[in-house]
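pipeline/complex-builder :: batch 7 item 3
reading input block
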Amino acid sequence: QKEVEQNSGPLSVPEGAIASLNCTYSDRVSQSFFWYRQYSGKSPELIMSIYSNGDKEDGRFTAQLNKASQYVSLLIRDSQPSDSATYLCAVNTGRRALTFGSGTRLQVQP
Amino acid sequence: KAGVTQTPRYLIKTRGQQVTLSCSPISGHRSVSWYQQTPGQGLQFLFEYFSETQRNKGNFPGRFSGRQFSNSRSEMNVSTLELGDSALYLCASSKTGTGVGSSTDTQYFGPGTRLTVL
């Protein structure tokens, strides 16, 4: 079992819709959770960080964390074509290293 | 505030050569981590430095090494290059990188160095 799992996609949504990206992790001691966005040929860009159970909102983005279910998600409201990218879920288990999922490719159709 | 910078941005080397990559963290950040990204393996952790000390190392051969200077700048070195070392090498900095669930964990990535081994 991979430590951090994501559906590779592509996830295709129409412009203006809500995109829902999911991630599960295996290490129960994980403390910090991050979503990064990566455009083709570029480096990862931080979108959201979340540390405690519940929801955290930042503009059009909402991160949700459920430690009991070992599940973290990212919702993107009013999706725009510029949101088309690969979204990486990353988990810090306290070993001072991020473990990344393989990424979900999101396509927003105009 | 300036972001993480990495030099050079692109490198072409041949098998058997060695290469040194450089990373300057965000001002005030003392933790520097290195990652390798390939299409097949995704993003994988190489090592992390804090106050000139390597605190953690990923599952890579000894050909991969690094160091951190007193100003928090970091370098990584790959010796005896192999074709499989072709990848995007990413540096990320954070304030403390402890993983204890606070904003000081947050890692910010540089633009990366694209290494091609021929």
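note: The longest strand of chain B covers residues 42-50.
queue -> next item
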